[in-house]
Hints:
This is DUF2848 domain-containing protein. It holds the Pfam family DUF2848. By secondary structure, this protein is of the alpha+beta class. It has one domain: Alpha-Beta Complex (Fumarylacetoacetate hydrolase, domain 2), CATH 3.90.850. It is built from five helices and 17 strands. The chain has helices at residues 36-47, 107-110, 114-119, 132-135, 168-176; strands at 6-12, 15-21, 25-30, 59-63, 68-69, 73-77, 81-82, 85-92, 95-102, 105-106, 123-124, 128-131, 143-150, 153-161, 185-188, 203-210, 215-226. The strands form four sheets. An eight-stranded mixed beta sheet has the order 2-1-12-9-8-15-3-4. The longest helix is centred in the first third of the chain and has 12 residues, at 36-47. It starts with 5 loop residues before the first strand and ends with a strand.
Amino acid sequence: xxxxxxxxxxxxxxxxxxxxITPKRLVxxxxxxxxxxxxxxxxxxxxxxxxxRPATTPIYxxxxxxxxxxxxxxxxxxxxxxxxxxxxxxxxxGKLFVGVGSDHxxxxxxxxxxxxxxxxxxxxxxxxxxxxxxxxxxWDRLMLRAFATINGERVLYQEGTLSGMLAPFDLIARRxxxxxxxxxxxxxxxxxxxxxxxxxxxxxxFELVDPVLNRVIRHGYGIAQLAVAG
Length: 230
């Protein structure tokens, strides 16, 4: 298995370097909330769209690593897809990093096959990573935030601290046990309920905020809808 080589800024041990990484595996973790009430709210939100409850929580979907992209726009089939902000864990060079991305998903396909829906769309990620060791002590204070531009209006779409999600090593252990995240793997870590409900947008922007070290990783992308002929 192989993915697309992407160039990223890596912040680690007080230094910043530009590196090229080529993730070989991509895993999308779903329903990863620590709070069962908040988790069930997101499940109910998806059920309203006809999307069935997951078989387990959390659940892990395998997606082609070539779907990862740092591009500033993606193309999707029709008007039934939407983004959702997630932290992204990356194992590269023996080290574990965290960044931020959007699990852009086809919601129509999701009603009958969630795994296939995850495969339908590119997964935009910000071209920047932090060393997990540098943020581990204040992990729960990190914040995810997303904005969607809908009908020309930019609105706050999602927001929450990572205290609401399973901690990274717990999330990894539930999938891989004591072996840890395999080298060359990227894992999306779950998301929050959308403010105002899940809906498509013309543009989606997302960020990971570190209020302790006073830094932010940001990225955004436009969504071009391709015609569906039938």
